[in-house]
Structures are given as C-alpha cells and as structure tokens.
C-alpha cells in the first residue's frame, strides 16, 4: 500500500515536470520570453488590456490620440503587428469597421482575437439617425448601431472579462495573475458606476447637449437624455436647419452648457455656445489620450471621473 502511494507520488511529480516542459518549450500557444504581446486598436481597449495584462507582457495601441477612431484605415505595419501578436483586442465590428477584412487577410496567423463588445447587445440607431449617418458618411463607415460601449462603466466590466478570457487562452500559465488583475480593475469600474449612480440619482435636470453623440450608453444607464450636435460616427458639422433647431431647444429648455470633446474639433459647439450664451465644457469620449496626458497620469478611470465632474454641472 505504502509503496503504491509512493509510486503514485513519483508518477505525479513526473507528470508535473512534463507539463512544465510542455508550456515553456515548443508549445505553440506559449508566449515569448518577453511575456504576452497584446495589440489593441484604440485607447479604451489599450487601457482595459493593460490593466488585465499587468507586468506579464506588453500592450500596444495602433491609433494615436489625434487619429480619427471612426473610419480609420489600417497601415501595412498595423496589419503585421496584429498578425504577430499573441492577442489582438478591438471594440467591435461596428466601431473598427476595418477589422473584419484585416482578419480575413491574416487568416494563417494564430493570433487570438478578442472583440470586446461581442456579447453585448449594441443599441440600434433610430431610423432617422441611421439615415443621417449614411448621408453624412456616404456609406461604408457609417454606423447602424452605437459603438461607444466602453463609456458605460457596467459594459466596460464585460469588456474586461472578454479581454481576460482571450489573454488566458493565449497564456494559460499566468491565469491566476490575469484573473487577479481583472478582478481588481473591475472593482474600480464598479465603484465608478456607483459614483455615477449616486451623482445623478435625484437630479431634476437630466438633459445635456454634446457635440459628438458618444454618450448614449451613459444616458441610457443613468436615465439621462443626450442631445447631440453631430452623429455617432463623426464631429461633422450639422446642417443650418438642425443647428437652428438645437439653438431653439437650448433656449426653450434653459440649457446653458455645451459639451465638446477635447480631442476633436469644437467649432460647432463653439458656434452653438456663442449663439445661445452657453458655456463650453469638456466631455471626453476617451477615443484617445495624448502621450503627454498619459504621462501626467490620465487614464480611463481618471477621465471618466473628470467626465462625471463635468456632467454634474448640468445634471443636478
Ligand atoms: Zn465616437
């Protein structure tokens, strides 16, 4: 009996050694010595992935802060980077409309692809909004659903979970570390959600005017009304009739603030503010944070807090 137990013990130890060799040796799914290599499309995906990966590897981002995240065209270097990565993270086929064809072109790559919004039901745009989109964008890059899912602190947690699953598939060995990182970050996102809930709970004014229609998910989550100057896929200037309509809406509803994005053109917001005597406030869709701002410590959580502070000036 004792001998048999001992033997089992020896066999298990041998099995463990074999497993050890397998994962650090020629196993195809193992990551390189520098750790897992994750390529992401634009800022929120980068920030979420970085929080999951921690110090287990490297996370890079394809779009710089100033680049237009709607209707982006990938470079050959971008495509090569995606093909060479262990994991590629993007928001959705609806946001990064260029991704599906890129993935087709690199079919032979064994990169693990994470569409972070895959399991989230994106909101369809109203018919007239969608029609406007098509008109403005002339087809291809126009969205039929609202892709700005990352701005909702609850959906953001689901996106983190999707990224976690992809990262573990690529690097099973560090599963526990990734799980701990994701849990810690999701806890912060849950706190952010609570802060938004508390801030708006008893507010009487629940309507805000913003240049880029990126805040539909926040509006739905916290029962606010977003009135947007431009549409969900660009900061394009609306036609004069729509601008006049917005002006009248602001006067009728005594709205004295227009939000604009820090990274995009604020011309229309400025025009509207001047015409109505309203003030301008920044509300970031987080589609990019400059290197300078990142070095100064800005990230998804801090900018979402800044957005909350800015919204509280109107939603009260
Ligand atoms: Zn946007």
TrEMBL record:
<keyword id="KW-0732">Signal</keyword>
<dbReference type="InterPro" id="IPR006129">
    <property type="entry name" value="AdhesinB"/>
</dbReference>
<dbReference type="InterPro" id="IPR050492">
    <property type="entry name" value="Bact_metal-bind_prot9"/>
</dbReference>
<dbReference type="GO" id="GO:0046872">
    <property type="term" value="F:metal ion binding"/>
</dbReference>
<comment type="similarity">
    <text>Belongs to the bacterial solute-binding protein 9 family.</text>
</comment>
<dbReference type="InterPro" id="IPR006127">
    <property type="entry name" value="ZnuA-like"/>
</dbReference>
<dbReference type="Pfam" id="PF01297">
    <property type="entry name" value="ZnuA"/>
</dbReference>
<dbReference type="GO" id="GO:0007155">
    <property type="term" value="P:cell adhesion"/>
</dbReference>
<keyword id="KW-0175">Coiled coil</keyword>
<keyword id="KW-0813">Transport</keyword>
<protein>
    <submittedName>
        <fullName>Zinc transport system substrate-binding protein</fullName>
    </submittedName>
</protein>
<dbReference type="InterPro" id="IPR006128">
    <property type="entry name" value="Lipoprotein_PsaA-like"/>
</dbReference>
<feature type="signal peptide">
    <location>
        <begin position="1"/>
        <end position="26"/>
    </location>
</feature>
<feature type="coiled-coil region">
    <location>
        <begin position="168"/>
        <end position="195"/>
    </location>
</feature>
<dbReference type="GO" id="GO:0030001">
    <property type="term" value="P:metal ion transport"/>
</dbReference>
